[in-house]
Amino acid sequence: MENKLILASSSPRRQALLRLAQLSYHIRIPDLDESIVTGNNPIEKVSELAKMKNKKISLDNEKEVILAADTVVSYNQTIFEKPSNKTEAKDMIRSLSGHTHHVYTGVYIRNSAHERAFVECTEVSFWELSDEEIDRYVTTKEPYDKAGGYGIQSLGAMFVKEMVGDYYNVVGLPISRVVRELRSFSIFPEFDSI
Ligand SMILES: Cc1cn([C@H]2C[C@H](O)[C@@H](COP(=O)(O)OP(=O)(O)OP(=O)(O)O)O2)c(=O)[nH]c1=O
Questions:
Q1: CATH number at residue 181
Q2: What is the full DSSP assignment across 80-120?
């Protein structure tokens, strides 16, 4: 029996990125109140949450490999998670306007024998945005299921002036590094065997 990758996430983007890398996976969604992890250190926060999401899923046998992740936006000593309403979304995007922020994704991988954890950081600079632009954006569905209140993979792309680091890390999973780490768990993308 081959090793089996379990994605501990409800995020459609994380699923899409595993498919992009030609990885087969199963989904098990962790039930976790993310607000229990407090504090203003983004690296600690994403590490802790990725680990907690991962450990919420039990390993049924030694072939299973569980992957979990957490993404936050950090600007000026403040962590931005998913905005819960229009006002919060507007405030977040207004603070990011004309500035450079960091997007952190913590990844935690484990099987019955070992575990690997890492944090990837991408630097994103926004253009100066007008109030009208921000108002229009928050009337779309885009901000509400995304850290920082924007989606770089869709309309939020219009805000981005410059980026340093892995684009896919901003979307929720630094897929090229994940693929490399998964090889040590004997999980391989289909293209490895071509
Ligand atoms: C900044 C940014 C974040 N995001 C997303 C990635 C993450 O899915 C989300 C941050 O929330 P997370 O809590 O990391 O993930 P999630 O709630 O979507 O899924 P789960 O906890 O079940 O794994 O924000 C984008 O899709 N685009 C972006 O540009």
A1: 3.90.950.10
A2: E---SSHHHHHHHHHHHTTSEEEEEEEEEEE-SS-EEEEEE
Show the domain range for 23.
Answer: 4-193
Per mean pLDDT, which range of 15-19, 52-56, 174-178, 187-191 is the poorest?
187-191
146 lines ligand 1 (CB under 6 A): yes
| Structural domain total, the chain | 1
Please pick, among 31, 60, 70, 166, the residue that the annotation labels catalytic.
70
Q: How far is the CA of 147 from the centre of ligand 1 (A)?
A: 6
Q: What is the pLDDT of residue 20?
A: 97
44: burial class by Cβ within 10 Å (0-12, 13-18, 19+)? middle
- pLDDT, residue 192, reads 82
From the alpha carbon of 72, which atom of ligand 1 is closest?
A: 10
ipTM > 0.95 for the complex: yes
